[in-house]
Design goal:
The structure holds two protein chains of two kinds. Chain A is mainly alpha-helical. Chain A has nine helices and no strands. Chain B is of the alpha+beta class. Chain B has a single domain (26-150), classed as Domain of unknown function DUF4822 (Lipocalin), CATH 2.40.128.540. Chain B has helices at 2-23, 27-31, 59-66, and strands at 33-45, 77-80, 85-89, 94-102, 107-111, 117-125, 129-136, 142-150. An eight-stranded antiparallel β-barrel of chain B has the order 1-2-3-4-5-6-7-8. The mean pLDDT of chain B is 79. The chains are: A mainly alpha, B alpha+beta. At the A-B interface, α3 and α5 of A face α1 and β4 of B. Chain B: This is Lipocalin-like domain-containing protein.
């Protein structure tokens, strides 16, 4: 999911990363709406709200919404900064750092909300800012490493693309196009997982409260560990193959040579 | 000229943000104090319910219908204290509940002791006027508007 970059990514890589990150985005977005009465990833909506607050002349609200949009921007900025600067050294580490930062953000919100939150407006705004930064990180990372084919924190573009794709499928030549079919599968999966995450957040909100961000963190940890496990597994198979090759070489060349020498 | 503009834009942006921050007043601080209910009205009502042309303006009737399931039912004076306590004063009753502001400062949350929570849209908040909106679930479906004046 995280090891490969841009065009070297397979459809399966994108499908797994897109689905899991969409699930976590759905949970975070609805979680923040239920806990703080504001979306954490609906930036288009925040732009509309920003405009309306400017028109109303509400300076405080204008500044708050502007800072939320700016933090989403910063999240995306930091994610891509990590990717482009560290990709040459270790792509897995470069792609994992934004997810690790996102986990830190979510655990911070969860821990603070569960233990110290006094429901003041200042706290609400800071916690929401952290969530917007986290969503910026996630969206920036997925878009950056997938060559802009995965965006998981909002579904405007995804729904538009799905509409276009399904209209294309009314023609037989496009219905049989493997790339288009894969794209439709990816976008449908992102939509479905986002919705599932949102519904689960809605159902578990009363019982979990702020702890729901721990659940999201576990999903994100799975994304990181899955690739780590794959890397380890690959290394193991590689070593095993080398060992087998060495054994064959030993049997075919070295042992007969020794036997010859002894004889 | 180009280098001048290069420095001017960030400096102007910082100065503008600093000015705005100094002007901006926290809605929590603005809300603190004593507010008196002045009018109850329906902003959006089902068409069938507006046959009576005077209906929208009968404040006490609207209050009676719209607030029958709400904690604010018998209050006429709302005193927002800085410790997130709200005192609802009526003619004969006084109730103490908790208040907080959510979202970007646009949602007023009222909490009773028994875990009941009500949410109101903080539509307008100035130094002397407060307007709250809420969805009414009563037989008169619509958005009710509650206007307050600040007690000086």
């Amino acid at each position: 999911m995280l090891r490969k970059y841009s065009n070297s990514r397979s459809h399966s890589d994108n499908l797994k990363l897109g689905s899991l990150s969409a699930f976590s985005a759905g949970m975070i977005n609805i979680g923040s709406l239920l806990l703080f009465f504001s979306f954490s990833s609906n930036v288009t909506g925040h732009y509309a709200i920003l405009a309306s607050e400017i028109v109303k002349g509400n300076v405080y609200q204008t500044l708050v919404v502007f800072s939320w949009i700016f933090l989403f921007f910063m999240g995306s900025f930091v994610a891509n900064l990590t990717v482009i600067h560290l990709n040459n050294k270790n792509s897995y580490v470069a792609h994992s750092i934004p997810i690790v930062l996102e986990i830190i953000c979510l655990v911070t919100v969860s821990t603070y909300g569960d233990n110290f939150y006094k429901e003041t407006l200042f706290e609400t705004e800071i916690l929401l800012s952290i969530l917007l930064f986290a969503m910026g990180l996630q969206n920036g990372l997925t878009a950056s490493i997938s060559n802009f084919s995965i965006k998981t924190t909002h579904l405007t573009g995804t729904t538009t693309d799905l509409g276009i794709l399904f209209s294309m499928f009314t023609k037989k030549e496009f219905r049989n196009n493997k790339t288009l079919k894969q794209r439709a599968k990816l976008l449908s999966s992102i939509t479905l997982f986002y919705l599932s995450g949102a519904i689960i957040a809605g159902f578990t909100y009363i019982s979990l409260g702020f702890k729901m961000f721990y659940v999201v963190s576990i999903v994100l940890v799975f994304i990181i560990v899955y690739d780590l496990y794959k890397i380890r597994l690959k290394q193991y198979w590689h070593k095993k193959r080398l060992f087998k090759l060495n054994l064959v070489e030993l049997k075919e060349n070295i042992i007969p040579e020794k036997e010859k020498r002894v004889a | 000229m180009k280098s001048f503009l290069k420095y001017l834009i960030p400096i102007a942006s910082i100065m503008m943000l600093t000015t705005l921050m100094s002007i901006a007043e926290n809605p929590e601080k603005k809300l603190e104090g004593s507010w008196k209910e002045s009018v109850w009205e329906y902003e959006k009502v089902d068409k069938n319910d507006t046959k009576n042309s005077d209906f929208k303006h009968i404040s006490s009737y609207v209050k009676q219908i719209a607030s029958q399931n709400l904690i604010i039912h018998k209050a006429e004076k709302w005193i927002f204290l800085p410790n997130q306590k709200l005192i609802l004063k009526g003619e004969k009753t006084t109730k103490e509940i908790s208040w907080s502001i959510k979202g970007r400062g646009n949602i007023l949350e009222l909490k009773y002791g028994n875990d009941n929570i009500e949410h109101y849209n903080l539509t307008e908040l100035s130094n002397d006027k407060l307007v709250l909106n809420f969805n009414s679930d009563t037989e008169l479906r619509g958005i009710a508007r509650l206007t307050f004046e600040k007690n000086k």
